[in-house]
Specification:
Shape: globular
Number of strands: 0
Distance between the termini: 38 Å
Radius of gyration: 15 Å
Low-confidence stretches: none
Strand content: under 5%
Length: 73
């Protein structure tokens, strides 16, 4: 049970880190708006499962790059 609790706590810390990123970085807010718009457009045009996977990978790459950039700044 202790391992599960530690794992859940790590997700809480990760979520808090993302909240701080979006709250403090203007570019992260732009990425958030873009992410929502792109996801909405994907629903609208009816992307396939494979297209969603590629889109999710691209979105994850952008967010990862933004987080690394912020950490290095």
């Amino acid at each position: 049970m202790d391992a599960l609790r530690r794992r859940l706590l790590s997700f809480v810390h990760a979520w808090n880190g993302l909240r701080v990123l979006v709250r403090t970085q203007g570019n992260a807010r732009l990425h958030l708006v873009a992410t929502v718009c792109v996801a909405a457009a994907g629903v609208w045009v009816g992307l396939t499962r494979d297209e969603w996977l590629w889109l999710a990978a691209a979105i994850a790459a952008v967010w990862t790059a933004e987080a690394f950039n912020t950490a290095l700044e």
